[in-house]
Amino acid sequence: MNEQSNVKLVQEAYAAFGRKDVGGILDRTSEDIDWHTFGPAELPMGGPRKGKPEVKRFFEQVEQAWNFDRFEPREFVAQGDVVVVLGRYNGTSKTARKPFDSEFCHVFTVKNGKVVKFREYTDTANLIGALAPSMSRA
């Protein structure tokens, strides 16, 4: 596929995410997708994943954790098989009901019309802070 087709594939995956269509996202990934959201153990959806079932679980964890007010992929930069997406998301955590707001960088590798590798880089301290229960002062 060419760079323009790779960008279109990634944009379609974001559109599926916006519809909460996890199947539509997974349809655009390889069976052995290599997925990694970097972050410490306190971030439930952080860490490496391998294969569609583990990525499906990632999206279940995202759904359980976050209410998004905005999820905006803003810039798509493609070179060869790699598509880099710069964007921003914000909202509140479902458990602690605390706000989060972070820029992100998503890096997709596409082979034969499927995403074979995904990496997410974001402000994990901001996300972990939104998940943490409020501390009351005595």
Q: Which fold name is given in CATH as the topology?
A: Nuclear Transport Factor 2, Chain: A
What sort of overall outline do the alpha carbons produce when their principal axes are compared? globular
pLDDT < 50 stretches: none
Number of domains: 1
Class in CATH? Alpha Beta
Secondary structure: helix percent: 25-40%
SSE pattern: HHEEHEEEEH
Round the Cα radius of gyration to an integer and report it. Answer: 15 Å
Largest sheet: 6 strands, mixed
Features:
single chain; 138 residues; alpha+beta; Nuclear Transport Factor 2, Chain: A; six-stranded mixed sheet; 4 helices; 44% strand
Could you walk me through the main structural features you see in this protein, from its secondary elements to its overall organization?
- With 138 residues, the chain is an alpha+beta fold.
- The chain has a single domain, classed as Nuclear Transport Factor 2, Chain: A, CATH 3.10.450.
- Helices cover 31% and strands 44% of the residues.
- The chain has 4 helices and 6 strands, in the order ααββαββββα.
- It has a 6-stranded mixed β-sheet with strand order 2-1-6-5-4-3.
- The longest helix is centred in the N-terminal third of the chain and has 16 residues.
- The radius of gyration is 15 Å and the shape is globular.
- The model has no long low-confidence stretch (mean pLDDT 94).
